[in-house]
Fold:
Amino acid sequence: MPQRMSAETIEIYRRTVEQEPENVEARYQLALGYYHARRVKEAIAEMQRVIILDPKYVDAHFQLSLWYYGRCMFHSAIEASQKVIALEPANPGAHYRMARSYFHLGKLDLAIQSFCKVLEADPTHMIVHYHLGIIYERKRMWHEAIREFLQVVSENPNDASSHFHLGLAYKRQGVRDLAIGEFMMALDLDPEDNASLEQLQSLQG
Structure:
């Protein structure tokens, strides 16, 4: 994350933009300065001006996608991410942001497509495998959910949440012993995991 600008530095960029309205880099830096000063509306407005001046400024589109997402403006985040992808089709960060936005909008199939694009660039991206597991769980695609959560715990055996979700998927498939094993593993890693305890009690009761 870029260092927060001092108020004096922000003012220097503001004056530069005032004197040189078409100075794209000064506007870009001013937008970043506003954002890190928590002047988010001004940051977004300034970054939009950057894009008007230079529609191919990839970093500007990407920053907007992050800022829109942070404000739960998921449709706008998707649009900004799509503009990044139009310029850099394999940009994993843009595909990831788009996938998360689709997820929050309940567009799970589109989220899956975007997450899979991230995995094309980085097949071992564990956070993506975890999110895919959650989506498949919501869609009751238990085999696919198990595949994704197994991928996570193979790389990070101490991920209690993935063990819990593996247990749920095994339970839904009727594989009782494997489900119990996963819930026990989740409890070993997180003794305060009441959800895993309840699942264990229901299976062993």
Summary: Residues 40-53 form the longest helix (14 residues). The domain at 124-205 is CATH 1.25.40.10 (Serine Threonine Protein Phosphatase 5, Tetratricopeptide repeat). The CA atoms of residues 126 and 155 lie 8 Å apart. The chain is about 80% helix and 0% strand.
